Amino acid sequence: MPEPRTFTEQHPIRVFLLDDHEVVRRGLADLLDAEPDISVIGDAGTVDQALVRGPALRPDVAVLDVRLPDGDGISVCRELRSQMPELACLMLTSFDDEEALLDAIMAGASGYVLKQIKGSDLVSAVRTVAAGQSMLDPSTTARLMRSLRADPAESPAVPSELASLSPRERDILALIGDGLTNREIGKKLYLSEKTVKNHISRLLAKLGVQRRVQAAVLASQLEQPDTGEHRTKG
C-alpha cells in the first residue's frame, strides 16, 4: 500500500471537479478553496472535458458527478485512474443508487457521497481520500457483493456457465474483474477494442447477466490454477 500522503497550506490537496451544473461547480469550488490545505485547480462540465483536462492538471483528488449528459463519472474515474493510478476519485451523486456504488467500487473510486452531504463532511471526505483512505463503507460493499452473488436468477447457473467460457473469454472476464476498461483489456491481450466488446457481449450472454459489473462479481469465482496467465506481459 502507498504511504499516506500529507498536505499543508504550502502543498495543498489539488482538486479537480466534474459536474454538468455550473452553479454546483462554483459552489464546490468556493467551499473547498476556503480551506487552507485544499486548492481547486480546474473543473469540467462534460466527460470529454474531464478526460482532457484531468490528466493535464494532475490533481490529487477528482470529485466526479456520477450522472452526466454525455456519459457518467464512473467511466471517467476508470479512465483517469488508468492514466493516474495515484488519483483518488470521490463520486458525488443525487441518488442513493446501490448499482452505481458497486460500479464505483469496481472502477477504483475511493469514496461515494450524496450531494445532500454537509459542506464540512464533504471537506473531510476530500481530505480522507487524499490521504489514501477509503470513504466506502466496508459493510455496505460486502453486502452488495453478497446480494449480487446470492441473486437466485443467476447463482445456481454460475459454475457450469463459467465452465462454458472459452479460454479467451475467461481471460477477459478476469480482467473485467480487475476493473480494466475495454481499451485496457485490448492492449493487454493484443485485441482491438471492438473485438473485446464483442467478446464481452458473448460472455455476458453465456453468464446470463446483463451488466458488466455483475460479470465482474462472477469473475471472483473463477477457479484457475494458472491465474497468472492472463496477467503475463508481452
UniProtKB/TrEMBL annotation:
InterPro entries: CheY-like_superfamily, NreC/VraR/RcsB-like_REC, Sig_transdc_resp-reg_C-effctor, Sig_transdc_resp-reg_receiver, Tscrpt_reg_LuxR_C, WalR-like. It comes from the Bacteria. Coiled coil: none annotated. This is DNA-binding response regulator. Residues 158-223 form the HTH luxR-type domain. PANTHER family: TRANSCRIPTIONAL REGULATORY PROTEIN NARL-RELATED, TWO-COMPONENT RESPONSE REGULATOR. Residues 14-130 form the Response regulatory domain. It comes from Streptomyces humidus.
